[in-house]
UniProtKB/TrEMBL annotation, chain A:
This is Fe-S oxidoreductase. Residues 260-502 form the Radical SAM core domain. SUPFAM superfamilies: Radical SAM enzymes. It holds the Pfam family Radical_SAM. NCBIfam families: rSAM_fuse_unch.
Length: 647, 210
């Protein structure tokens, strides 16, 4: 049975909504296939607005990997803005894909990519618009398998009622394996219906199907245990790790949006994983071990990606890009290859050292030295030991001053507020540091015309990190500290004038904390918030703290818990955590020890350069560190494209 | 393609659009000028651009720009307005009332706030098509089709302003949003015909196929 496009109905609504171009598709790189010539069909969603979702690497990679299969079709869908949502509900237009404008409900799999928990309410909007029952339990064979992926799926318990399955970790091989299972099940005539399909997925031991697990609670509200409710599924579900990234050089054909988006560039992940061991960073913990892409593969990807897309910006992504074993040669090689073109290169890096400046210098050869970013994360040396982000105050000042003396005029410093054991003094030291930076910077640059921006956000403890047991600070405490910091920065008017102050207040962080470390009971809060109109929670103009607090007050007390219980409460060593049955490879004893080490301000080295410290990942996941150097170099490109000759 | 770039820290590709159609409107006749760093065969340029653009955005022809700017050769547009669920006779009456007026004041939101201006003077032709045929495949019958030619003036008079004018003079309120398509742009002759702005540059080298 073929599925027709909803575009004729949608088109009637487009003149009445803002930015209609985001709904029309047709991007360079988009793929439209004949429905009837494929057997397994995926709708992939980034549950945020098109302008945020389109550049997402995860979705672009899976989209391409799936569409390379002859009998597989993958299309994309994004969250529609409330203006179109209302019109769609009124006119009966369902959630659609932007590629061929097919209704999401018609696909075999509805895969959502959760980089952040703040997309949960948007998932409910999409399910409602799609005509798919919100509860997994109410779905039948006519509905797609609702599948969650991305970092947030390392604790999908808060959305356990709404999803049918979740994949933890890398998706490249997972989506192909799931496709294979569905293909086979369909070829056999769909034996056993939806339950049988979910069972086959669960038996892989690396796809989590929440309905096959029961959660029991203790009288005090804590979890007693999470156990399978049938004999043929595993007790623990393991994460996926894609090894040998050179064999997976995606995206090859990046999507080029017609509408404006947050990033318009060709992004290449130069490595995955990070073992620096920052204790707050979930991404660093759950993506171990480090797997590098070689310098030559990166060079090849950049060349082909630019030729295909015509982008004139390249981002060399990873969790700490300056740590690639061949980053020096990679940057100078690419800078050389694209000298005299209009291609600019960028390298997000959080390292606070002179090497970072060398790289930035290399990459900004042609251009202006506008801004440079460093992330000390913690204001005092003490708190930096707590979070394992080691850099001394002297090093930090020296690094920033080097940047100013090399021609940079603007430096951005990133911090967090509300870290475990943090005091007012830890935060106030940020002001001292910023003053010092400006004072020394003015002397070094020989001009008053330098600026520094302090950017600070609330800390959110995440599952599978040593801080998973930590209590959060109340929003009043965070906001109080931020205010104190602001006053301290401005206490010296001459220095304060050169310092910008940007902050996120504490309330959204508390809700992010609820969603990050919540269990299945939090699902009722998410549903309540959505019913009350909550959506686009990552957007300050849509987020409502009051709505979340109200919903918590309505549904949580009946279950003997509340918002504070999930957020500001410190957990004990033996408490069963909602995600304990989900295996990130990290040994829980090691995490606990690291939490203890943190509280005694004891630092942990990086296993790339020192011996393995037994975090547990490599042996339990059967993986290994994959790094260079390969010793290869990037050769000059001929002919050079996109010459920039001003006329 | 060796597109030329502007000077400065953030160089922009040298592309200029002549009176682009408004959002939400179809078009069969958009024109743009591209600055190149080196001569390129126009047909080659056409094929390359067409391949990179979305389905439905088709580059029909490229010519080497001669004397004068594109903007100087465009002073009017022809539009087709489809009004589903509107009886042609009803539209006919509204159009006649519009044309019989010396001035039709309409309002539009601009960046400076609400503005009132005359939508009549710029209209050089406005007629209800005799035989409604629906190339865009809309299925609603009846459907009135208006053939409209508007001169370029300041402030610009757009098809939706003329529709507002029809409401003002005759209370015409289409029940569903009308579908508007630009059919041609160019220089308006004394006979009321529109001359293709590329005509002047045709007949030279490497002209693409129409
Ligand atoms: C680029 C980037 C952004 C960009 C672009 C976002 C976008 N549209 O993609 C911008 C600047 C907008 C951004 C914003 C934010 N970001 Co950001 N961002 C990154 C960055 C640098 C790269 C992300 C990336 O492309 N990774 C590579 C891709 C391939 O990985 P992936 O998406 O996880 O996908 C893989 C798997 O997860 C899986 N998968 C993904 N989806 C699915 C779906 C299914 C069905 C399946 C089966 C599998 C699957 O398969 C993929 C391939 O293996 C990362 C750091 C990093 N290097 O990872 C931070 C990072 C992801 N961001 C982070 C944060 C916190 C944010 C913000 C919340 C910040 C804020 N406070 O506003 C916002 C949220 C924005 C939003 N509403 O979504 C954190 C996440 C924190 C965490 N989980 O611990 C990270 C890890 C940085 C960090 N170390 O803190 N970000
Ligand atoms: S197991 Fe050892 S080598 Fe592997 S990531 Fe953990 S500490 Fe590093």
């Amino acid at each position: 049975m073929s599925v027709s496009s909803v575009f004729p109905q949608l088109e009637q609504l487009l003149p009445r909504v803002s930015k209609p171009i985001q709904y029309v598709g047709g991007e360079l790189g988009a793929v439209v296939k004949d429905w009837d010539e494929t057997t397994v069909r995926w709708a992939l969603m980034y549950p945020d607005a098109y302008e945020v979702g389109l550049p997402n690497q995860g979705v672009q990679i899976l989209y391409e990997v799936l569409n390379e299969q002859a009998d597989v079709l993958a299309e994309r869908t994004y969250a529609v803005w409330p203006d179109l949502e209302a019109l769609m509900l009124e006119n009966g237009v369902p959630q659609f894909t932007v590629d061929a404008h097919r209704p999401v409900k018609a696909f075999d799999v509805f895969g959502l990519s959760f980089a952040t928990e703040l997309g949960y309410t948007n998932m409910l909007c999409a399910l409602k618009l799609a005509g798919i029952p919100l509860d997994s339990a109410d779905r039948d064979e006519s509905h797609p398998i609702v599948l969650a992926g991305g970092h947030a799926s390392f604790n999908p318990e808060p959305i356990a009622d709404f999803i049918d399955a979740a994949v933890l970790g890398d998706g490249e091989e997972a989506v192909l394996e799931i496709t294979g299972i569905i293909r086979e099940w369909k070829a056999e005539g769909c034996p056993g219906g939806r339950d049988e399909l979910l069972l086959r997925l669960a038996r892989t031991e690396s796809i989590y199907v929440p309905r096959f697990y029961d959660v029991d609670y203790l009288p005090d509200g804590r979890i007693q245990r999470v156990v399978p409710n049938r004999p043929d599924v595993p007790f623990r579900v393991a994460k996926r790790t894609t090894m040998d990234l050179d064999a997976w050089p995606y995206p090859k054909k990046p999507l080029v949006p017609l509408a404006e988006t947050v990033h318009e560039r060709y992004a290449v992940e130069i490595f995955r994983g990070c073992t620096r061991g920052c204790r707050f960073c979930q991404a660093g913990m759950i993506t171990r071990p480090v797997r590098e892409r070689s310098i030559t593969t990166v060079g090849q990807m950049v060349k082909e990606g630019l030729e295909f897309s015509g982008f004139n910006e390249v981002g060399l992504l990873s969790l700490s890009s300056a740590d690639h074993s061949e980053i020096g040669d990679m940057c100078s090689g690419l800078a050389e290859q694209y000298a005299d073109t209009n291609v600019s290169l960028s390298l997000p890096s959080t390292r606070v050292d002179a090497f970072n400046i060398d790289l930035a210098q290399e990459l900004s050869r042609n251009g202006r030295r506008t801004g440079l970013t460093f992330a000390p994360e913690g204001g005092s040396e003490r708190i930096r030991k707590v979070i394992n982000k080691m850099v001394t105050k002297e090093d930090l000042i020296r690094t920033v001053v080097t940047a100013y003396s090399n021609g940079w005029r603007q430096v951005k410093l990133y911090f967090m507020c509300g870290l475990p054991s943090e005091t007012d003094e830890d935060v106030l030291e940020i002001a001292e540091m910023a003053h010092e930076v400006i004072r020394a910077g003015r002397a070094a640059a020989g001009t008053k015309d330098i600026r520094c921006t302090v950017s600070i956000g609330g800390f959110v403890p995440k599952p599978h990190t040593p801080f998973q047991w930590a209590p959060m600070d109340r929003p009043e405490v965070i906001d109080g500290r931020l205010k104190m910091l602001k006053n301290a920065i401005n206490s010296d008017r001459s220095l304060g004038r050169a310092i910008g102050f940007r902050y996120h207040d504490g309330e959204p962080s508390l809700i992010e904390g609820l969603l990050s470390r919540g269990d299945r009971r939090v699902g009722k809060v998410i549903r309540r918030v959505w019913e009350k109109g909550g959506r686009f929670d990552g957007w300050s103009e849509h987020f409502s703290y009051a709505r979340w607090v109200e919903a918590c007050d309505e549904v949580l007390p009946g279950m003997g818990v509340d918002l504070d219980w999930f957020t500001t409460r410190e957990r004990e060593e033996l408490e069963v955590l909602p995600w304990d049955h989900l295996d990130s490879g990290l040994d829980k004893d090691w995490l606990w020890q690291d939490w203890q080490d943190s509280m005694s301000e004891f630092e942990q080295d990086d296993c790339r350069w020192t011996p393995c410290f037994d975090c547990g990942v490599c042996p339990s996941m059967d993986t290994e560190i994959q790094i260079g150097p390969t010793g290869k170099k990037l050769l000059p490109l001929t002919p050079v494209k996109n010459l920039r000759v001003p006329v | 393609m060796p597109i030329a770039f502007s000077q400065g820290f953030t160089p922009h590709p040298k592309i200029s659009y002549a009176s682009a159609a408004p959002t939400g409107v179809g078009s069969e006749a958009e024109y743009l000028e591209i600055g190149l760093q080196a001569p390129v065969d126009p047909e080659q340029l056409r094929v390359a651009l067409d391949a990179a653009l979305s389905p439905g955005l088709d580059i029909l022809e490229a010519v080497i720009a001669g004397e004068g700017s594109l903007a100087d050769r465009i002073d009017a547009s022809q539009w087709r307005l489809e009004l589903p669920q509107v009886e042609p006779a009803v539209a006919e009456k509204a159009v006649t009332a519009f044309l019989d007026s010396a001035e039709v004041l309409v309002e539009r939101m601009t960046k400076q706030g609400k503005r009132a201006f005359d939508a009549r003077a710029a209209v050089s032709r406005c007629a209800v098509a005799a035989e409604p045929d629906l190339p865009s495949g809309a299925v609603a019958v009846p459907c009135a089709i208006i053939d409209l030619v508007v001169r370029q003036v300041t402030p610009a008079v757009r098809p939706d302003d003329v529709l507002s004018g029809l409401r003002v003079v005759a209370g015409l309120e289409p029940p569903v949003p009308p579908r508007v398509t630009r059919l041609a742009q160019g220089t308006l002759t004394a006979q009321g015909e529109i001359v293709d702005p590329l005509d002047a540059d045709r007949g030279g080298v490497g002209i693409g196929e129409r």
